[in-house]
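Appendix C: a fully annotated inverse folding record. The material below is reproduced so that readers can follow the format used throughout the book. The structure is listed first as tokens, followed by the designed sequence.
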């Protein structure tokens, strides 16, 4: 499918995506090459960027990452369709970095749903001494507000319900949806000998149905090769390349265009 943003209204420009109006109920997502994480300073005073799927700062652009993440999203959204997991995906145009999706209504100011299989990242920072790095956690599900200014603070089911953002029943529905999607991804990665550590999803409403929105790419998950520890976490580029290879092998994605090379099935 050939898509274009020519003469399309720009609705929002984000860290890794721009959002354009396609029609009354559909939008186009333009995927950028930027990664997310945190800018830090080492002992020598040099500034460096540390990739982190939970990070709120934009890192250097990596050539081809937008297309690779788009391929990953198409791959998993199509697998979700097969598994009857509701999501917003319609089609995409990899050559132009564009994904065509149903427009989802967000809850309140928006929140992210996170499923953790192992203790790492912010879980260790928030609960020092409670968890050990790489410790297995049992169905750890949480939600965080989308707020860069507040560093995406956690918010409970009860707080969301009290604020009128979402009912407790719908919160539980989101949990089930995310858990089902996570199992698809974890099983897929296991075929490559990889372990899904944690993953975040964005949620929306399409025709009053709760669906997965935004993207499903290397930028929203933490994955390990070998023992589950921070030093074994794949960076975004490594994981993106693996997901592109899986998409190509599965022949789910209709066309690939990465680093200037086109491959159509």
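Designed amino acids, in order:
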């Amino acid at each position: 499918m050939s898509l274009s943003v020519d003469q399309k209204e720009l609705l929002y420009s984000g860290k890794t995506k721009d959002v354009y109006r396609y029609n009354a109920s559909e939008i186009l997502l333009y995927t950028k090459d930027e990664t997310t994480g945190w800018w830090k300073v080492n002992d020598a005073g040099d500034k460096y960027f540390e990739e982190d799927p939970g990070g709120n700062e934009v890192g250097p652009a990596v050539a081809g990452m937008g297309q690779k993440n788009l391929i990953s999203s198409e791959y998993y959204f199509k697998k979700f369709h097969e598994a009857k997991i509701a999501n917003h995906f319609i089609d995409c145009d990899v050559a132009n970095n564009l994904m065509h999706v149903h427009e989802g209504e967000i809850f309140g100011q928006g929140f992210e749903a996170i499923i953790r299989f192992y203790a790492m990242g912010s879980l260790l920072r928030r609960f020092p001494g409670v968890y050990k790095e790489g410790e297995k956690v049992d169905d750890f599900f949480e939600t965080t507000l989308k707020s860069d200014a507040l560093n995406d603070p956690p918010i409970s089911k009860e707080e969301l319900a009290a604020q009128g953002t979402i009912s407790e029943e719908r919160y539980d529905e989101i949990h089930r949806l995310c858990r089902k999607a996570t199992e698809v991804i974890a099983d897929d990665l296991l075929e490559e000998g990889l372990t899904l550590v944690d993953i975040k999803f964005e949620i929306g409403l399409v025709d009053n149905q709760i669906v997965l929105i935004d993207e499903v790419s290397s930028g929203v998950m933490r994955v390990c090769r070998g023992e589950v520890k921070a030093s074994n976490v794949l960076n975004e580029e490594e994981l993106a390349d693996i997901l592109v290879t899986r998409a190509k092998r599965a022949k789910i994605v209709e066309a690939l265009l990465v680093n200037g090379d086109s491959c159509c099935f």
